[in-house]
Amino acid sequence: MKQIIKGGRVIDPANHFDEIADVLIEDGKIAKIAKSIKDKDADEIDAIGKIVTPGLIDMHVHFREPGQEAKEDFRTGGNAAAAGGFTTVASMPNTKPVVDNAALIRSLQERANQVSKVHIELIGALTKGQEGKELAEVGDMALSGAVAFSDDGHYVKSAKMLLNGLDYLRAFDKVIINHDEESSLVEEGMMNEGHRSAMLGVKGRPTVAEDIAVARDIMLAEYADARVHVAHISSANAVDIVRQAKKRGVKVTAEVTPHHLTMTDECVDLRDSDTKVNPPLRSQKDVDAMCAGLKDGTIDMIATDHSPHAEEEKDQEYGLAPSGFPGLETAVGVLITDLVKTGKIEMPLLIEKMTAAPARIFNLKGGSLSVGAPADVTVIDPDLEWTVDESEFYTIGTHSPFAGRELVGRAVLTMVDGKIVMRDGKVID
Ligand SMILES: NC(=O)N[C@@H](CC(=O)O)C(=O)O
């Protein structure tokens, strides 16, 4: 079985390649990339005017298995990923029960492989039940295939616990991903603390909560000579703390979400829980710092923090509604429209942050179009105009803050191991 993706601009940051070229795929692997490939036995896929990239990777999604399948499961989440142009995603363990043991990692991986159109990696909990009291069986989970460890959704309050985890996981070369919000400073807060929260008269979650947490984690990683990854960074000061740490050689990496790169707390309307998320949408100064951090390499990668919830939960009043919203199906459009088309960042850098960088940090198979690599490929139409319509989402989650937005740029084809799983926005069964 052979296919040729013809005439696209092939951007493969891992191989420093950016040219108009054809991509030959044979038996589910990348076989050749060259100016003009002719093979009468191959199916042709026209990519003229389009961008051909390694399959996009999202290391931060919540697929809610086990226990909360009414919000999302591996099948619906996998379909949402395929629709958004992602070929590999990593699912967080804040489920019911929490994914904190090797038996669960193994059984969930089997199920994910059966029902998902894209590769699903599993992140194990750092502590039992994500309660922060006792280390989970992280070694066994690592040996059973857990890609990283995180108490995401919760701050690891005990510095000693985090240090134990860092010391232990160094031997496995696994990364701890931290949700950095110092809990005592964010209790009851439902949005960013600032001008807007004051105007609305609600309790805020200050950026200093994130800054303290990021600083502590960096000090611990430096002390333990271990790797720590900051999830969904959102505060300007926190970005600067990571920048300084990297200069000292600390093994810290960071990710930012599309919403923290493009939206501010000025759009929070308490009548609608669409904008409720942790960490909260911040100020313009913070948003600008996210973009600067992405450009200068302080922020290594982009991750969506795709956090679907059931409609009836998000329909509650702002204070009661859960935090988070879906992000897989809007990411490419939002990032191209608000960052690339506005000239804030270049397309190759965007692609690097969504392919080569996560693959490098988490030691994944994908992330490049190297000859012999699995043919995980995304074709993006950078000029396609479309409007975000939640009724067309594959995710169960609704209440996207991007609903109704007119965007430019969209993934139009997703290929996993040489198999087309999405074409023109439609997931293929
Ligand atoms: N990011 C979110 O707003 N929500 C996350 C958990 C969390 O990180 O708080 C979720 O699981 O829904």
TrEMBL record:
Catalytic activities: (S)-dihydroorotate + H2O = N-carbamoyl-L-aspartate + H(+)
Dihydroorotase catalytic domain ranges (all copies): 49-236
Leading EC class: hydrolase
Family annotation (SUPFAM superfamilies): Composite domain of metallo-dependent hydrolases, Metallo-dependent hydrolases
Chain's role: Catalyzes the reversible cyclization of carbamoyl aspartate to dihydroorotate.
Stated family: Belongs to the metallo-dependent hydrolases superfamily. DHOase family. Class I DHOase subfamily.
Protein name: Dihydroorotase
Sites where the protein binds Zn(2+) 1: H60, H62, D152, D305
Residue sites binding substrate per the record: H62, F63, R64, N94, N278, H309
Keyword Zinc attached: yes
Residues annotated for Zn(2+) 2 binding in this entry: D152, H179, H232
Lineage per the UniProt record: Bacteria, Bacillati, Bacillota, Negativicutes, Selenomonadales
GO molecular function, one term: zinc ion binding
